[in-house]
From TrEMBL:
InterPro entries: AminoTfrase-like_pln_mobile, MAIN-like. Residues 1-33 are annotated as: Disordered. Residues 98-287 form the Aminotransferase-like plant mobile domain. GO terms for biological process: meristem maintenance. This is Aminotransferase-like plant mobile domain-containing protein. The lineage of its organism: Eukaryota, Viridiplantae, Streptophyta, Embryophyta, Tracheophyta.
């Protein structure tokens, strides 16, 4: 018994396959949506492919008027703001935190086209890039070898913080007045601190030799410009300050694992057609061997 396949593209981009057996009427034939042109035919795993940027690119639809993904890269800011030679009063705390390598690992220029090409092949359901030769991903071993961040220790899952707690954290651990902090948080329109504001605190507390506050502002600015970079490109989530309440104990956290989880999350967001920015640490993505 011979069969023929009739393909018609649906409104959602799927190609339904209708198998017509000889001797059977077309009304009795079963129609099943089996996949997307240029994409997966079995979508039981890649359930969000309908919203994936690759599906839209196949039909010539770009992300928006600028037709490219905006990537957060703070390499030049780090070069100008984050000194490599730290005062000895800070050096011991920064070294014990396990984050000192981030001072030297950031690329000053991010290849947006290269990063975008990888993002278009990322699928959040598998946490991997789907390449013509198979799947590949970024691993904890990559984080340890390329960024020299600790991948052993306590896995830190950041808690959500209210704006009231954001103010309290700044007052207690960055030594900023309550009124000034409230005004700043209102200007951020959420539970954030501005990177520029943290830099000003870093300069101010360094001039007054308030080394614990200097170090916290420095570390928060450092992670906010690298492994925890936000899609706004100017803010850092205030909840990361919780990492640095105890400067002697923050070395017990697996910052490498947190960096990888953050990048995975942002890659998943950016692989969707509606997303226009990529957060996280693009250097880790670009320097993959």
């Amino acid at each position: 018994m011979k069969c023929s396949v009739v393909q018609r593209q649906g409104a959602d981009g799927r190609i339904p396959v209708r198998t017509l057996d000889r001797g059977a009427s077309s009304s009795a034939a079963a129609a099943e949506p089996v996949g997307y042109p240029g994409g997966p035919y079995d979508t039981s795993l890649l359930v969000k492919y309908e919203h994936h940027v690759a599906r839209h690119i196949w039909f010539g639809e770009e992300r928006g008027p600028k037709k490219e993904l905006k990537v957060a890269g703070h390499g030049l800011k780090l070069t100008s703001r984050v000194p490599l030679a730290l005062p000895p009063q800070m050096e011991s705390w920064v070294s014990r935190s396990g984050l000192s390598s981030l001072q030297r690992t950031s690329l000053n220029k991010i290849d947006t086209n290269l990063v975008s090409a990888f993002v278009e092949r990322w699928h959040l359901e598998t946490s991997s890039f789907h390449m013509p030769f198979g799947e590949m991903s970024i691993t904890l071993d990559d984080v340890a070898c390329l960024l020299h961040l600790p991948i052993r220790g306590i896995f830190w899952s950041p808690q959500d913080v209210t704006e009231e707690l954001v103010v309290e954290l700044a007052v207690d651990y960055l030594r900023v007045s309550q009124g000034q902090t409230q005004s700043h948080v209102r200007s951020c329109r959420g539970s954030y601190y501005k990177l520029e504001w943290l830099y000003d605190l870093f300069v101010h507390h360094r001039a007054t030799s308030s080394w614990a506050y200097v170090t916290r502002a420095y570390l928060l600015m450092l992670v906010g410009s690298t492994i925890f970079a936000d899609k706004t490109f100017t803010l850092v989530e205030a909840r990361y300050l919780l990492l640095f309440r105890d400067l002697d104990g923050c070395s017990g956290y697996s910052c490498g694992a947190a960096a990888l989880v953050t990048l995975y999350r942002y890659l998943g967001d950016a692989s969707m057609y509606s997303c226009k920015q990529l957060g996280g640490y693009p250097t880790l993505l670009q320097i993959q061997p």
